[in-house]
Amino acid sequence: MIYYIGLGTNIGDLYQNLENVIINISNIKALRILKKSSFHKTQPWGKTDQSDFLNAVIMIETDIEPINLLMIFKNIETEMGKNIKEKWGPRIIDIDILFCDDITMNNENLTIPHPYLHEREFVLLPMIEIASDFIHPVFNLSIKDVFKRYIYTKNFKNKKIIVAGDLMLDHYLFGNVERISPEAPVPIVDIKQQEYRLGGAANVVNNIHSLSATPIVVGLTGVDSYSDILINHLNKKGITTEYIIKDNTRPTTVKSRIFASGQQIMRYDQEQRQDVSEKIEIMIIEALENSIDKADAIILEDYNKGLLTPKIIEYAIEKANKKEIPITVDPKFKNFFLYKNCTVFKPNFNELQKNLNIDIVDDDSLKIAAKNLFAKISPKYLIITLGERGLMLFDKTDNIMHIPTFAKEVFDVSGAGDTVISVLTLCLAAGEDIKNAATIANKAAGIVCGKMGIHPITINEIFAL
């Protein structure tokens, strides 16, 4: 059997401790050390008010069973003077079984793979050195991809993203059709199940939350039962709703989809599309003013349901640029040319073509359309989503990058644009360059297109590709 063993120390002569433990392990009968990493100095994990650690990982081969090997390692730890007085406290030596082939086990004495290794840089870095392509048997990811996921999770976790836009509730009704209505030539759907999901700007919020960051929601609902459902969904996830304004003059936006035998046969909407009143507009601007100082980026998610008025758009972009944080825009048709000087403007192909009133028939005409749009609104970057063709990235210096789709199978495009803007913005806030951010966002969109209905993306899914 092939094992990977983690070693660590932060008391005494750290280098000598690791050298000694490696010698002690090599002296075990019927055991052979195949590889060993270099030594890595790392900050303490779990309990941070102690000295830095020195860590390494070794690869060994032995027929000793995991439980028996654990007992042998515990004896070595004791002989070397290990005496831990508190959990995650200082120790002269620590020996952990990280992996044993592709075995998974979980009992009161031993869990394989080690349950915390994916959160520990001091394990992942030396593991990458000696076994970067080893596949984690639980996550089904290579160690190098587990490390990427760790880095993105770490970078995303402390980011706060304002999502200002049209909140929606997606209502799904599932049933069967066995007869036609006698009242009209339409099917009768016998509803068996229904569920609600976060949609529109609320889906962007859900994606940000699913990626371990903190969304700050600036939005609007009606005063109705659907508002209660939407806010309850957010509260259950621990997402603050203090900047969601309730307006008793309009309903909460709801998109209801009826499915029969796995096929969508109808959609009906409850909404109002006129701009919010001046009173609500002032309240939205106040919400942005009160939240922008703690934000690392802003997303304007415009579904043309009236929240993003010209004044609100201008205010948000001006404040973001003054603070020098990314502000990204997912537009529709109305307000299309109002988003001047944003960081990223992300229309889809149809929105671009309709708003510019031109026929885009090939890449050359697409480039001309992009140039026209730069002239009108001057974003730092322009991303055009192209459905099954992926997306095109443009900048002001005429650099162009085509990123093909990563979708293996397109089942439902609902929410794909929300996913792109969510992942893209979070990557930019975490310091990624625009090309990497767009590539990762495109991967994420390909994943959600393979699912039915609205689903938030996770870091695990992105790095499983």
Structural class: alpha/beta
The parts where pLDDT drops under 50 for at least 5 residues are none
Can you count the helices?
Answer: 13
For the biggest sheet, the summary is:
9 strands, mixed
**Which radius of gyration do the C-alpha atoms yield?**
27 Å
CATH class of the largest domain: Alpha Beta
Name of the CATH architecture of the largest domain:
3-Layer(aba) Sandwich
Helix content: 25-40%
Strand order of the largest sheet: 12-11-8-15-16-17-18-19-20
What name does the CATH topology of the largest domain carry? UDP-N-acetylmuramoyl-L-alanine:D-glutamate ligase
Overall spatial form: elongated
The count of domains is 2
Number of strands: 20
In round numbers, the mean pLDDT is: 91
Please give the alpha-carbon distance between the first and last residues: 28 Å
Strand content: 25-35%
CATH superfamily of the largest domain: Ribokinase
Element layout with pairings:
Layout: E1 2-9, H1 14-26, E2 31-36, E3 40-42, E4 53-62, H2 66-79, E5 94-100, E6 105-106, E7 111-112, H3 121-131, H4 143-157, E8 160-165, E9 167-180, E10 187-200, H5 201-210, E11 214-221, H6 225-236, E12 244-246, E13 253-260, E14 263-270, H7 278-291, E15 297-301, H8 310-323, E16 327-330, E17 344-345, H9 349-356, H10 363-377, E18 381-385, E19 391-395, E20 400-403, H11 416-429, H12 434-448, H13 459-464
Parallel strand pairs: 8-11, 8-15, 9-13, 11-12, 15-16, 16-17, 17-18
Antiparallel strand pairs: 1-4, 1-5, 2-4, 3-4, 6-7, 9-10, 13-14, 18-19, 19-20
